[in-house]
Amino acid sequence: MTATFAVRCDPNGTIVRVLRDPDRIATSAATLAECVISGSAPDVFTLLRDTFSDRLTAPVQMRVADRDEVLWCVAARDGDTAVVVGAADADQIGAMIAAIRADVSDDVATTLDVRCAAVPVPSSGDDDTLLELSRTNNELVRLHRELAAAHARLDALNDRKNEILAMVAHDLRNPLGSIGGFAQLLERMLGDALEPRALRLLERIGALSDQMIEIVDDLVDVQALERGNIVLDVEDVELGDVVRRTVDTYEVATAAKDLQIAVSCPDDAVHVEGDERRLLQVFDNLVSNAVKYSPAGVGATIRVTCAADRETVTIDVADEGHGIPPDEHTRVFEAFARTSVEPTGGERSTGLGLPITRSIVAAHGGTITFDSAPGQGSTFRVTLPRRQRSDPDARSSP
Ligand code: ADP
């Protein structure tokens, strides 16, 4: 004979009265949750929550503690308490409902009857499969519920993170700008009177505050771009010019690491529709990475190559650096993620440059890909749609 029970409990599952318990499942327990193994507890709470919120509750299955038994449970609200009946199948639940009729109102008994009728009838031979299916189903429902709760927590944390980032952007950027500005002012006011060491320190203050502003800007960018909040100031941009201007800004940094940058872009102008400032940011990130991850002091070369066909423009930035191990490739475009490849000259690394770059390229209708392997360096490739000739403003382009 399989176990059966009927209890009355409050919304927390505390058993306030045992109505029938021939198999001593609930008699020794204070709460309904104690009657079942922990994996089934969420189902008990769902059953109670649905019952007390007067929702239509489906029968649920729960595994009885210390027994290798699974019971179907149905419940009905009776004022401040719920009447819960559990048994192995609909026949046994029906018998138990008949036995407790005197203890419950007609409405409650009818509700229990209706819910008991929803307990699947196992056909002979398929019992085990059906039971297993029901268990799997219960488990799926439970996992789904946990996932939804985790999602909600994640959303709340993400909102919090965004608030903090907005606060950082607002409250740090201005004072940082002032620090840099004051350092420059002092340099101008006292430049000649200062001894060289003091002058160098002032310059360092200026450079560090600029660096911190860049980090704050990257944080703000990555947040805005991830949400798709990017507004492009679109104009006709000559890409070769953008590439060459970017490379020019790395003269000092490349000299310090004994690097060469070889630029090969067609003499003919190649135009795209884009936001010049954002496109400068794209190539600045790629060239700065190439410089950052190239070996210092060995005369390595960085190659920046532009190519165009009728539809697209492609720019490759290739270095002779360490190269990224294949199992770390998926992290490269993740915000704040870094790979095991470290900058070769102690440069800063935030893991924000490439996610920002990818968002900007995507906003221009383009793509960014890369080839990289240890010992073979890295090549990052940006492909952008070319400004079409039919556009009267683009006549000068080939
Ligand atoms: P950052 O360089 O500031 O850390 P990025 O988002 O630009 O951030 O790059 C993410 C990571 O990808 C870097 O930390 C680095 O590990 C790797 N990476 C990017 N570019 C290169 C490159 N040219 N060579 C080797 N590794 C690179």
Describe the overall structure.
- It is a single chain.
- The model is unreliable at 394-398 (pLDDT under 50).
- The protein has helices at residues 41-52, 90-100, 106-117, 127-190, 196-226, 239-248, 251-256, 276-293, 353-363, and strands spanning 4-9, 15-20, 60-63, 70-78, 81-87, 235-238, 260-264, 271-274, 301-308, 312-318, 367-372, 378-385.
- It has a 5-stranded antiparallel beta sheet with strand order 2-1-5-4-3, sandwiched between helices. A 5-stranded mixed beta sheet has the order 7-9-10-12-11, covered by helices on one side. It has a two-stranded antiparallel sheet with strand order 6-8.
- The chain is built from 9 helices and 12 strands.
- Bound molecules: adenosine-5'-diphosphate (ADP).
- Adenosine-5'-diphosphate binds at residues 285, 289-290, 292-293, 319, 321-322, 324, 332, 338-339, 341, 349-355, 378.
In short:
The protein is of the alpha+beta class and 398 residues long.
Key descriptive features of the protein:
single chain, 398 residues, 5-stranded antiparallel beta sheet, binds adenosine-5'-diphosphate
